[in-house]
Amino acid sequence: MNVDHLHRFLIEYQTDVKATKEDAQAILDNFKHLPIFQKKGLHLDAFFRYLFGDLNTPLSSTPGVHQDMTAPLSHYFIYTGHNSYLTGNQLSSDCSDVPIIKALQRGVRVIELDMWPNSAKDDVDILHGRTLTTPVTLIKCLQSIKEYAFTASPYPVVITLEDHLTPDLQAKVAEMVTSTFGDMLFTPGPECLKEFPSPDSLQKRVLISTKPPKEYLESKSIKEKGSVSQKGNDLAEEEAWGKEVPDIKPKTEAEDKTAPDVEEDSEDDEDQGDGDHKQTTEPEYKSLIAIHAGKPKGGLKEALKVDPNKVRRISLSEPALEKATLTYGTDIVRFTQRNFLRVYPKGTRFNSSNYNPHIGWMHGAQMVAFNMQGYGRSLWLMHGMFKSNGGCGYVKKPDFLLNSKDNEVFDPTASLPVKKILKVKVYMGEGWYLDFQHTHFDAYSPPDFYARIGIAGVPADCLMKKTKTVEDNWAPVWNEDFEFPLTVPELALLRIEVHEYDMSEKDDFGGQTCLPLSELRPGIRAVPLYSRKGEKYKNVKLLMRFEVVTV
Question: 289 FRET partner, CA 20 to 30 A, in 5, 385, 492, 515?
Answer without folding.
Answer: 385
